[in-house]
Amino acid sequence: MLASELEVTDTLGRWMAHYIAERMARLEQKSGSERAIAEAEVADLILRLWSLRRQLPGSRLPLAEVDEVEAAIERLAPGRRPWAYFGAFSADTEPSMEETEASTTLKAALLVDRLSGDLVHGLIRLAAEIAEEDDAVWVKQAEKIGDGALRTVRRIQFADNDSEEADESPGCNSDVKRRATALSSVVSALVAALEAEESELSDESRG
């Protein structure tokens, strides 16, 4: 597959494609230990080429969508600490749990921070599933090689599938919808509370 992709690009790509094809064709002419050595050399060549897949010529790179999801996952720390999603406070300036519980505003902010992170996490999990479907042909090859980006993308799916929340939801779409609904409910309640407070202050000023 890599060879066929390279063959339609530039001169260097065509040379690489024919070189790989030639080395693989020679395997049929070998046997015993000689073939085993040649197979190891070809495998090493393919792995070295795969390690450069993001730099290959052409507009459609192997596992392009999987790579994009991997980059997003790396920005979402699993088991993030309170206030970690938006990064409103650094680790040494975060309000204590007692301070947070005593402030309605801080409690709301912390809840929005957590639910926003949960929603984004769910959306990235959905993007991971879509990326695997769109790159399905390449995914089969990446599985054989043990591609790191593919492992990262699958980790977010398996981690969620092992959770109790995943058992409650029949699919990733439902999970994202549940998380979006939770965040929407909190934001709607917050807007209503702020409007009520504004109305109360307005009445007091007129009085």
| SS content category | mainly alpha
Helix content: over 70%
Order of helices and strands: HHHHHHHHHH
The shape is elongated
Work out the helix count. 10
Low-confidence stretches: 162-170
Rg over CA atoms: 26 Å
The portion of residues forming beta strands comes to under 5%
Largest sheet: none
Number of domains: 2
Number of separate strands: 0
Mean pLDDT: 78
User: What's the N-to-C terminus distance?
Assistant: 78 Å
Furnish the topology, listing elements before pairings.
Layout: H1 2-7, H2 11-27, H3 32-50, H4 64-74, H5 97-102, H6 104-134, H7 136-145, H8 148-161, H9 164-168, H10 172-206
Helix pairs in contact: 2-3, 4-6, 4-8, 6-8, 6-10
Task: Give a brief description.
By secondary structure, this protein is an all-alpha fold.
Structure description:
Helix 6 runs antiparallel to helix 10 (172-206). This protein starts with a helix and ends with a helix. It has 2 domains: 1-62, no CATH class; 63-207, no CATH class. It is built from 10 helices and no strands. The longest helix is centred in the C-terminal third of the chain and has 35 residues, at 172-206. By secondary structure, the chain is mainly alpha-helical.
Question: What would the keywords be for this entry?
Answer:
207 residues, elongated, mainly alpha, 2 domains
